[in-house]
Sequence to fold (498 residues):
Amino acid sequence: MPEAFKLGFSAFALPSRGVLVVFCNDGLHFGSETRDLLGRSLDMVRKAAAVERFKGKLGATLDIILPSELQVNRLIVVGCGQASALKGPDYLRLGGIAMGKIPGQAGDATIVADLPGGAMKAEQAADLALGARLRVYSFDRYKTKPKDDEPKPGSAQITIGVAEPGPARKAWAARAAVGDGVVLARDLVNEPANVLYPEEFARRAAALRKLGIAVEVLDVTAMKKLGMNALVGVGQGSAHESRLVIMRWNGGKRGEKPIAFIGKGVCFDTGGISIKPAQGMEDMKGDMAGAACVVGLMQALAGRKAGVNAIGAIGLVENMPDGAAQRPGDIVKTMSGQTIEIINTDAEGRLVLADVLHYVADRFTPKFMIDLATLTGAIIVSLGQEYAGLFANDDKLADRLIKCGQRTGERVWRMPLGAEYDKMIDSKFADMKNTGGRFGGSITAAQLLQRFVGKTHWAHLDIAGTAMSAPQTDTNKSWGSGWGVRLLDRLVADYYED
Fold:
């Protein structure tokens, strides 16, 4: 997040400089507050709209430079379609659209949170602000010579005009904490693997201690003592040692069982001995997006002081091929005592998660566990990049995740689990094998994970299509999207806080 980016709330007022952003519906109708602010300029806006064939459809914009009757340098009209049909994700999107139209060197900008039918409520205005904040994110810390003509939207001072600034500021305080979590997750995913290897990732997670999160880092020696041979085996070919990081936020009642989130943190995945093709391998720096989401979520929960006890656990490894690397045909004994035959060393994420899931279930006995992982290419074949795959052994937890996905726009689609798929990973030489063949790849991966959760309520999110090389949207122009932070924060806020 650019340090120069500043956002605040004030009562409705016509600015005397900078950029003014207002909203209209698909009939070119404005809210009453907007009409009062624009006054005689409304006729000019309607004439400009007619020339530009601007109808006010959702996402469409009209840009008027040096508007007559107004002292601002620019007036931007953003269409919201049918205002009465807007939902939570739409306000986030409108904020992103508005922010995207504000020129990089614009200075001050005012966004009027008013729609046909009435001013936005505090929560809606806060979502609008969050959309603006997420839109300005960029990852350019390694560019030594930025181009002069590159837009720098983060340099603007943004004011959101609202009916009641007090409630809006209060709602924004929680949204800002979530925004911090998303930004942290994006930063982690975007970092190159020579910078963000397991030990460094663990150090960055440990920085959350300043927010009151208890952080414990286990090294290879400690994990071997626990019997985490599946996790350790994945990283044994790398010069960078593996780590397990446990983060604890105690914001709920003392002694109450926690909820738990587990992330796959493969900081770089060559495929190991079963090496990947060279084309596109550079993207495998993002194979730790599940762990990045968990760290971002823990920051969000602590930042807004969520009334819940939460565990975040991330298994951090680097999957490299050398003389010490794991081989196809090897058999490892997991912490749970179950054995896994390694068929393909590129199916490594499930090995990491197997030990971490068992560890969290056994040590903390949580109310539920949700793991996130860029686990399979098969889920992208199934769902593309619009939905994450959801697998669960608990219908209530699955339904809640689906509803929260609809509310936040980070959508999930439930996939099947079943004994028929389970048979596909049975091994002749061990309790199971780490791949089930070509068919149903995302399902057989989830079936393996299910063998390590015991009786704990559990959901698995396969985020391979949504978290890295992410679709470009009105609120995300980054390669790493930070997907999942808002979804899981909403799940906690809606269903699990005191």
Remarks:
- The chain has a mean pLDDT of 95.
